[in-house]
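Cross-check.
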Amino acid sequence: RLMAEPVAGMSRLDHAIEAALLLAWASLKAGDRVGLYAFDERPRAWVEPAGTLSRYEALRQSLARLPYTQAETNFTLGLTDLATRLNRRSLIVLLTEFVDVIAGEVMFDALARLSRRHLVVFATLEDAQLLGLAQRAPSTLEHLHRAVVASDLVRERESVLRRLRRLGIHTVDALPGRMSSALLNRYLEVKRRELVG
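Predicted model, tokenized:
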């Protein structure tokens, strides 16, 4: 539901797909196995991990068929189902969105369980408009109210990301135009440090 929202001229889902495809291409070129799993209230797509460049087209087609839905994301079901499909330690890049600490709460247990066996990168898109509202000096009472609300949302978001990092989960929170390079850099860091093995 949240991934259907527009940011910087495209939906969050389209930004995520763009970043995922670039990361998949780079990973396949490096000889790594790449798969795909997508879910909202239930699993929506699964492409078995494989290590050949021919896998890229299957990934692209599966991502192109992902629907926009208004369903609430069920992290417990989705991440538990994903864990049953993986038979070896993996790098899992979760491209998602949340609104606030309350929404973040439902993710923590499922992500904590998943991160005990796998290396998890939790990736979200920063909202430049929200950041601008939080940082802009208010000139009216209405602007002050908006700035306070925006500041609270930014602070809550950072609180969720800090808590995920304390669980050992890597986080990427990047502006839409920088998400692809941020994920690629994190992947290269994981490779360099041999964190997955």
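The CA atoms of residues 33 and 50 lie 4 Å apart. The chain has a mean pLDDT of 90. Passed to J.P. for a second look.
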